[in-house]
Recover the amino acids of this structure.
């Protein structure tokens, strides 16, 4: 069974920085994609940043230039460095791991979520 454990969430003032970590354990398939999502109260969960096991990254527009996603394949850990934080970044941040396995004509999708870590940015 795959488990994802996030850490690093905290209360920080606007303009501050935080580093989130997500450690994955269990039987993990490569290649895979690890992502950070966030969900603010009353809002839908949104994709923040993604990194593939090959190192390709993508970001939602609102965090480009402020957030950096990185990964350590040897440790099965992904990080989210967040700088210049704004009150609107306040949310619960979730780690996501997914991969696809092809067996003959069949395609199997696997997806796992962490429990979330709270980030609160005060103005």
């Amino acid at each position: 069974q795959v488990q994802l454990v996030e850490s690093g969430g905290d209360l920080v003032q606007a303009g501050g920085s935080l580093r989130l970590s997500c450690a994955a354990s269990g039987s993990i398939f490569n290649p895979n994609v690890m992502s950070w999502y966030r969900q603010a109260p009353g809002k839908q969960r949104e994709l923040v940043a993604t990194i593939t096991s090959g190192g390709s990254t993508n970001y939602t527009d609102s965090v480009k230039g402020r957030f950096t996603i990185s990964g350590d394949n040897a440790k099965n850990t992904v990080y989210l460095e967040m700088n210049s934080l704004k009150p609107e970044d306040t949310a619960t941040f979730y780690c996501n791991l997914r991969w696809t396995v092809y067996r003959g004509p069949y395609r199997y999708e696997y997806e796992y979520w962490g429990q979330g870590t709270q980030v609160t940015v005060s103005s």
User: Anything to note?
Assistant: DSSP finds no helices and eleven strands in the chain. The chain has a mean pLDDT of 96. The first strand starts at residue 3 and ends at 7.
